[in-house]
Amino acid sequence: MTITKKTDGTSLCAAFEGRLDTNTTGEAEKELKGSLENITELILDFRELSYISSAGLRLLLSLQKAMNTRGTMKVINANDVVKEIFEVTGFSEILTVE
User: Fold this and answer.
1) How far apart are CA 85 and CA 52, in angstroms?
2) Neighbouring residues of 77: CB distance < 8 A, sequence distance ≥ 6
3) Which CB contacts under 8 angstroms, 24+ apart, belong to 91-97?
4) Distance of CA 40 to CAs 12, 20, 22, 51, Å?
5) Which backbone phi and psi does 84 adopt, to 5 degrees?
6) With pLDDT > 90 as the criterion, what percentage of the chain qualifies?
7) For residues 68 and 94, what is the distance between their CA atoms, to the nearest angstrom?
8) In 10 A of CB 66, how many CB atoms?
9) What is the pLDDT of residue 45?
């Protein structure tokens, strides 16, 4: 999995490519949580994300909790498979998905 980050002032956009699963979530967590200082808007671009597991969902929940205290978080460009996982697990109620 690859994460490409772009910062614009207090906004961070992280574009994911590949799978967010047990094997990649730890790396993704280090990559993102270390980049949140002074960030008030976190955008997760899932255009190239092919799959998300329960480990990836836990990461999203953790990021959402962190951003609740400092600003906003949204998921953009999720494919139908990822959107269905959000719906089935109830994450579509927790996250802002565009």
Assistant:
1) 8
2) 45, 46, 47
3) 91/57, 91/60, 91/61, 94/61, 94/64, 95/60, 95/64, 96/72
4) 8, 23, 27, 27
5) -65, -40
6) 97
7) 11
8) 16
9) 98
Q: How many residues does the chain have?
A: 98
Rounded Cα gap, residues 5 and 85, in angstroms: 24
- For the record, the structure tokens of 93 come out as 């109620």
Query: What is the signed CA dihedral for 35, 36, 37, 39, rounded to 10 degrees?
Result: 120
Q: What is the mean pLDDT of residues 59-74?
A: 95
User: What CA–CA distance (Å, rounded) separates 60 from 48?
Assistant: 16
Annotate the chain with three-state secondary structure.
CEEEEEEECCEEEEEEEEEECCCCHHHHHHHHHCCCCCCCEEEEEEEEEEEECHHHHHHHHHHHHHHHCCCEEEEECCCHHHHHHHHHHCHHHHCCEC
Q: What amino acid occupies position 77?
A: N
